[in-house]
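Long-time lurker, first post. I've been practising inverse folding by hand and with some scripts of my own, and I keep getting stuck on stretches where the structure tokens seem ambiguous. Below is the full token string for one chain I'm working on. Before anyone asks, I'm not after the true native sequence, just a reasonable design that respects the backbone. If someone could post their per-position residues I'd love to compare against what I wrote down in my notebook.
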């Protein structure tokens, strides 16, 4: 089965553990990055290991495209070594006695020529590891080792790429170094990537589709923008709630250290970005950085003031309310006090203005 033939992922598992019972029934997309998100012990890695066949769920059904990998009702279980997948762990796990080139060649040698849907040269270029090919793993930084591990995984031409917190062992600087390469995977690969993390930054920068795990269950699942903004889901109510808008860099104001991005709801002023005009960007807006006014302010230090419409409100406790707003074609969240919501007499359908006090670029 070639990578382009995978149309969907059907995954149903029940597996009892001491701390929780994994119990999921999922239909996942067969392209882009699906982020498995949740606190430690929520079941993210267990689910990934079930998909890889490293854990055998007592009740399980797994179909990748048209290929069946597990069906417990019919006592069928395809072992891991026969599943056309690649798994990137927290540690790179490179062969220490082989050079980078040797590690990559090992992955390629296991493939028949007709099964090579992703060339070794593509993997080397995408992860920018050409200058590292003759080095041994001991002479690589942590970020370089992970880039080689990802390139080795791609060289195996998998139908599915599984990544289990691949940045967890890196310090903040190394994480920042490698994230652009992961974004490159997101933009250039045509295979499904299942990516486990508890990092909001990685979620915001990489996810197309979001699966939120808690207590071994899927508590929210869907496209990123939709799942982040659902008032009946956990993400919009969280203290770190944010939306992620896709935009395109429109212009620079170098003298003010500002850039401007167009998105489906208008335009935003952002901290200066050293990117070419036209570059795609992801814009994260925290709900705590959004305030609401009934009239456009006549004079304000806030540059981003956008017309909006109230879609819904929900109380989140401790005197706080989350307001769901439509800004053009995009959804925005605002966390305000219940008193502010009352004084403004906010209700669904009202026209208001959203003031965005701060933005950050995440990809």
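-- Answer (accepted) --
I ran through it position by position. Result:
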């Amino acid at each position: 089965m070639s990578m382009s033939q995978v149309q969907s992922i059907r995954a149903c598992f029940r597996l009892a553990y001491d701390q929780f019972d994994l119990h999921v029934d999922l239909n996942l997309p067969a392209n882009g990055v699906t982020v498995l998100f949740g606190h430690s012990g929520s079941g993210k890695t267990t689910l990934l290991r079930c998909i890889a066949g490293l854990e055998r769920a007592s009740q399980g059904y797994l179909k990748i495209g048209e290929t069946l990998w597990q069906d417990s009702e019919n006592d069928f279980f395809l072992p891991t070594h026969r599943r056309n997948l690649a798994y990137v762990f927290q540690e790179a796990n490179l062969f220490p006695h082989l050079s980078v080139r040797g590690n990559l060649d090992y992955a390629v040698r296991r493939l028949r020529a007709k099964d090579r849907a992703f060339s070794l040269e593509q993997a080397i270029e995408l992860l920018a590891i050409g200058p590292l090919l003759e080095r041994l793993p001991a002479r690589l930084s942590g970020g370089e080792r992970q880039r080689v591990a990802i390139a080795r995984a791609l060289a195996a031409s998998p139908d599915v790429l599984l990544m289990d917190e691949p940045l967890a062992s890196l310090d903040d600087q190394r994480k920042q170094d490698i994230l652009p390469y992961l974004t490159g995977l997101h933009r250039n690969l045509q295979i499904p990537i299942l990516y486990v993390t508890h990092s909001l930054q990685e979620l915001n920068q990489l996810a197309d589709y979001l699966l939120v795990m808690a207590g071994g269950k899927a508590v929210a699942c869907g496209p990123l923008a939709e799942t982040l903004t659902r008032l009946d889901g956990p993400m919009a109510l969280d203290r770190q709630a944010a939306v992620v808008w896709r935009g395109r860099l429109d212009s620079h104001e170098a003298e003010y250290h500002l850039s401007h991005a167009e998105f489906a709801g208008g335009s935003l002023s952002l901290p200066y970005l050293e990117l070419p005009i036209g570059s795609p960007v992801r814009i994260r807006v925290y709900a705590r950085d959004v305030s609401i006014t009934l009239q456009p302010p006549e004079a304000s230090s806030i540059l981003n003031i956008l017309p909006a419409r109230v879609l819904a409100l929900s109380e989140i406790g401790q005197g706080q309310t989350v307001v769901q707003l439509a800004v053009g074609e995009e959804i925005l969240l605002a966390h305000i006090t219940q008193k502010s919501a009352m004084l403004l007499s906010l209700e669904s359908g009202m026209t208001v203005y959203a003031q965005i006090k701060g933005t950050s670029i995440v990809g």
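A couple of notes from the structure itself: The chain has two domains: 3-229, 242-361. The chain has nine helices and 21 strands. Happy to go over any region you disagree with.
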